[in-house]
Amino acid sequence: EVAGVAGEEVAAPPRIDAPPATPSLPLALPIWRQEVPADRRVPRQALIDIADSYFEGITQGRGDITPFDAACTRFENGGQMTLRTEPGGNAVTRMSCQEQFAAGMLVIVTSVSHRRYLVVDEDTQVVSAIVTFDHRGNLESVPMPRGRTVKPAGQFARPFSFLIFESFKVIDGKIRQIEATVPSVPYRMHPGWPAD
Predict the structure, then answer these.
(1) How far apart are CA 145 and CA 166, in angstroms?
(2) SS3 string of 23-87?
(3) CA nearest neighbour of 142 among 111, 90, 103
(4) Residue 140 CA from chain centroid, whole number
(5) 89, 196, 70, 92: which is closest to 144 by C-alpha?
(6) Where are the beta strands (DSSP E) in 77-159?
(7) In this structure, which long-range contacts are made by residues 28-31, counting pairs with CB atoms below 8 Å and at least 24 apart in sequence?
(8) Angle at the Cα of 166 (from 122 to 152), degrees rounded to 5?
C-alpha cells in the first residue's frame, strides 16, 4: 500500500489559504523517536481511538471530540499548518489544531473512509493511519476565522480525494504532533483494501 504512493514524487495539494513552506524543517523531528514515560502512556486501543477521533472531528466539523494538546502542531507535506508565529502569517495557520476544528473549516472534507491503522507503537505513543479524504466539490462556503466564509475554488470546487498517510504523537492521552503526506487521487478512488 505504502509503496504505491510513498515512492512517487508528490506535489503539495492545493489549499484554500496555503502557508509558505516551513524553513529548515528537520527531516525527522526528535519527538517521533522519543519514548513516552509509562505513566504518560495510553494503551494500544486508546491510541487508535484517539486517532479515529481526529477523523471524526474533521467529518463532524467539531473541536470538542478530539483530545488535542494545546501545543499540538500539524504538518502537511512538510509545511506547518498550525501555531505558526512568524510575521505575515495568515490567520488560519496561526490557529491551534483544536481551533481549526472548532471553526468548522475542515468541513471541506465531506467524508473520511477506508481508515486503517498500520502502526501503533505503545512505547513512543505513535499511531499511523492511512485514510481517504473525499471532497464532494459542491460546498457553497467554508467557515474561516473571524466569522468569514470562503467559496471553495480551484480543485476544491470539483470532486476529488486525498489518500492520506497521517501519524499522530500522543502524550498524556492528547495529540501533540501530527505529520501528514497528502497526495491527490481521483474522487472516491478505491485504495485497494476493504472499506470500513
Answers:
(1) 25
(2) CCCCCCCHHHCCCCCHHHCCCHHHHHHHHHHHHHHHHHCCCCCCCEEEEEEEEECCEECCCCCCC
(3) 103
(4) 23
(5) 92
(6) 79-80, 111-121, 126-135, 142-143, 149-150
(7) 29/177, 29/179, 31/169, 31/176, 31/177
(8) 150
Q: Exposure pattern of 20-46 as b/e (b: 16+ CB <10 Å)? A: eebeeeeeeeeeeeeebeeeebbeeeb
Predicted confidence band of residue 123 (pLDDT cuts 50, 70, 90): very high
Q: In angstroms, rounded to a whole number, what is the distance separating the alpha carbons of residues 61 and 187?
A: 21
pLDDT at 18: 45
3-state secondary structure of 126: strand
Arithmetic mean of pLDDT over the chain: 80
HSE-up (13 A, CA, CB side) for residue 98: 12
Is the entire prediction scored with pTM above 0.70?
A: yes
Report the alpha-carbon distance of residue 181 to residue 77 in Å, rounded. Answer: 5
Residue with cell 509545511: 79
Report d(CA 78, CA 60) in Å as an integer.
26
Residue 21 has pLDDT above 70, yes or no: no
Indicate the pLDDT class of residue 160, thresholds 50, 70 and 90: confident
Q: How far apart are CA 95 and CA 139, in angstroms?
A: 23
Helix H or strand E encompassing 181: strand 174-181
